[in-house]
Sequence to fold (693 residues):
Amino acid sequence: MDLENPSTDFPRRKGTKEPRPEMAAPKKNGLFQRFATLPGAIIAFVTVLVVVAVVIGAVMGTQNKRNKETITSSVDITNCFTYPPGFNPVDFGLPPCIDIDNIDLPPDFDLDDFIFPPTFDPKDDTSSPTFPDDPAIKPTPSPGVIPAPQPTPESTGNHFTCSDAQFLQVTNGETLLVSGTTNGATEPALCGQRGANVVWYSMIGTGNKFRITTCSPNTDFPTQVTVTKDCSSSGGDCLPSLIDPTCTVNTNGASHEWITESGQRYEISVGGKSAGQQGNFELQITEIVLPDNAYCEAPELVSIPLGGNVTVSGSTVNAVESAKCGEQGAKVVWYSFIGTGNKFRISTCSPNTDFPTQVTVTSDCSANSFWSSSCEHRINDDGCSVNTNGASHEWITESGQRYDISVGGRSAGQEGNFELQITEIPIPQNLYCSSPELVTISPGGNITVSGNTAHAVESARCGEQGANVVWYSFIGTGNKFRISTCSPKTDFPTQVTRTSKCYSYSTHCEQSLTDDTCSLNTNGASLEWVTVPDEKYEVSVGGKSAGQEGNFELQIAEFILPDNAYCASPEFVTIPNGVGSITVSGSNVNAVESPRCGLESDAVWYAVIGNGKVFTVSTCSPNTDFLTQVTVTQKCYSYSTYCNSALTDNDCSVNANGASYSWLTTVGEKYEISVSGREAGVQGNFELTITES
Fold:
C-alpha cells in the first residue's frame, strides 16, 4: 500500500476490470471534470445514474411515487451500486439503491473512473463542499466516551502479508469492528509468538491513544495481536500481546493499547498464540481521544481575576502522563497560569471530586523528581471538611512566572472526575525585611498601623524565629522610639523585633515577647531604644511561636530627649555674683543615660565651673516629685575617682525625695552634675539648687 497516496490501494468493487494508470482521479476531460473531491465525485456519479434511471422508468411507464428521501423504479433491481461504508446517501438526497445492470450509461461514461475508499468521512476532506442539513456529519465525542462499534465488512484480498495489509482508519473517537480469518494465512508475526501465521491491517496514528482487541465472542481461537511501525520491524518497534486482561467474555481475546504518533503508519497483525492455531476473529480498533491538556507542555491556560478565583471541571480518564513529582504512578492532566507576586491556592476540595486526588505545581516541565526545587506536591487538603478526596497547595508566586499544575490520583490506577479551584490571595507588600512598609512619624508624635500575619512567609531576624512576620521601617532621629502591639485589637500573642541590618541575626537585632506596661492586652509586646540620626530601622511583628498568626495594631512613638540628656552635652549653670545660689527646674522623663557612678537610672546633666569655694547641689525642694539621686564627676568617662554620689539630703526636712552633695571646688575646674532616680525606671520632675559657701 502507498501511504503517500493511500486511495490508490483501496479495494475495488467486485466485477470491475483492472484499473488504468489514471484511475486514481476522475477523467480531466470527462463529464465530471469539476467534481475533483470525493464527495463531489460520489454525488455527480450517482446523479447521472439517477437521471438515467428516471428516463428509463418513464419509458417503461412506471407508476411508482417517489418520496423526499428515496427514488425507486418499477424495474426489478438485481445489482445495486455499492456506496462506500460510512456514506449515507439519504443525507445527500440520493436513493439508497441504484440498479446498475438496468441502466444504459453514456458512451464516454466509465465506472472505473471512480474509485472510493472502503470508509467515507467527509470531515477528512478539507476541500469538500458544505453538505446541506448536516455540516458536521459525525460529531466528535467527548474524551473518554467510546461510541458503539459498527461492523465493517471484510474487503477483497486476504491480507496474508504485511505489505498487503488492509488499510483501516479510525478517527474522532470512533470504534471500528472488522471480521477476518487466519485460515490459509502464510506469513508469521514479526514479533511475539511467531509460530502461527497472521493476517494484516494498517492504520495511521492521530496522536491519540488506540486500543486493538480480539475480545469479541466471535473470535473462535486463541489469538495474539501485534503492532509495529514497519513491515521489517522485529525488535523494539514491535509490540505483541497474548491476552486481554479486560476481556471477560472470551479468553481467546488479546489486546494492546498505545499512544500513536500523528501521521505514523502502524501495521497490525492477528494470529494464533502458537503454531497451528487459526480460525475466525473479530478485531475491534478504537481511538481513545486524549484530553486536550494531557501533557505538561500543552496545558489548559487559566486566567484568574485579580483577587478572585476560577473553578474548572476535569477528568483524568484517558490521561497518559504522570506527575512531575510526588506520587508519580497515577496519570494526570495539566493546567497553567501566570504568577502575579501574590499568594495562590489550588484545591480539589469540591464535593464533585470523586476520587482521591494529588495536586502538583512546577515551573519547569522538565522537572521530574520528588526533590526537584521547581516541583511541589500535596496529597491532602487540611482545610477541607467536605471531601477527603481533596488536595490543596498554597505558595507565593513570582510575577510573570508560568506555573504548571497537575491533577491526578494519589496512586496508580486512581482516576475520575474533579473540580479544581485556583484562587489568588492578595498579600501585604511588607512580607520581607528587604521591602518593608515605610512609616513616617511626626516629631514627638506617634502612628498606629493595622496589619495581619496570615500570609506572612519570612521569619524574624532574631528572637523566636519559628513564626512568620511582616515588616515596617522608619528613619531614626536621635530620639527615643517605642514600638508596641499593646492595642486591644491585637488578637494573638505577638513578638516585636527591631534591626538596622536585614541580614543580621545578632548585634543589630533586639526582640521582645512582652509589654510590661500594657494592662490592656497580654498579647502585646514592646521595645524602646534611642535611635541614631538618619539610621533606617526595620521592625517586625509576628507570633511568639510557630503557627501563631492573626491581626494586630502596631504603635510607633517618638519621645523627644531632654537637651541635657548626655554627660557630654550638659546644661551649664552659673551662680550670679553676690547671690550665692541658683535653682533650676528639670525632669528626667525620656532621659536615656545613666550616671557615671551610683545607681543605674536615667539621668539629666548640668555643669558648673569651680571657684575655690564649697559647692552644694540639692534636690530637697518640695517640687521634687520622685526619689532622686545626685552625682558629681569631673570626667564624663570616669566611673571611679572622679565621681561621687548621694542618695539623700540629711538636712532636708521638707521632702524625703531630696538628695544633696557638697565638695570643695578647684578654680576653673569643670564639674558635671547628674540628677536621676534612685531605681531604674524612676522618673519625674525636680528642682536642683546649687549653692556656694
Remarks:
- Helices lie at 38-59.
- The longest strand covers residues 280-288.
